[in-house]
Write a structure and sequence with these properties.
alpha+beta; Tumour Suppressor Smad4; 2 domains; six-stranded antiparallel beta sheet; 17 strands; elongated; Rossmann fold; ATP-NAD_kinase_PpnK-typ_C; transferase; nucleotide-binding
Length: 253
Amino acid sequence: MSLKIAFCASDAAIAQSALRGLTRRYGDHAEQGADAIVALGGDGFMLQTLHRTQDNPAPVYGMNRGTVGFLMNEYSEHGLPERLEAAEVAVINPLVMRTVCGDGSEHRALAINEVSLLRMGPQAAKLRISVDGKVRLAELVCDGALVATPAGSTAYNYSAHGPILPIGADVLALTAVAAFRPRRWRGALLPKSAEVSFEVLEAEKRPVMAEADSRAVRDVRQVHIRSEPRIEHRVLFDPGHGLEERLIQEQFV
């Protein structure tokens, strides 16, 4: 019995060309009822696909037609069903972000990589950080801060000098962005079950925005972040090139 494969692609010309070639070779099944969804593009498109298909039980296999492709496999038109059959599965739980804004509105979003808080103006942000309701840092003066999953620990978190986390680690990375006070404070490792809360201090003078995988909310006053174990993203990787191996490799380059 042949695999039922659904294809999707970013708008980039190279991804659209790959889409035409693959669908000619393998056909194109509807995503509902597919055995696997193949996403063609870069990491940004892969994140979009995972968010869009989070209620679909079919795993997602990415092939790189973008730039970095950390979440993607090497592109080839040949032997795709065999690669899907042999692929390793990584299960990723997203973060859920809940914000309260200056106008009293509340917003909710999911993040597979990270939730980040960033200053909106020339003044440094001032943040109070609590973990599970207990204040852990009364005042962090910084350009921002973020909470990253293991899957997202090599993205913005790593650029901000945060730690790379093994994919199976039940921890989250709390990382400062350009911390000024406390001087060079880099952050903390927290249990995956922890809820991290940020309170924006002097918000009128020092406005802050929050982003969950590039979904931005402006003028936030409170941001609450926790892992969402009820949502599972199943991502496929070629054998020997799974997410665990990639996370290890990234620490030796």
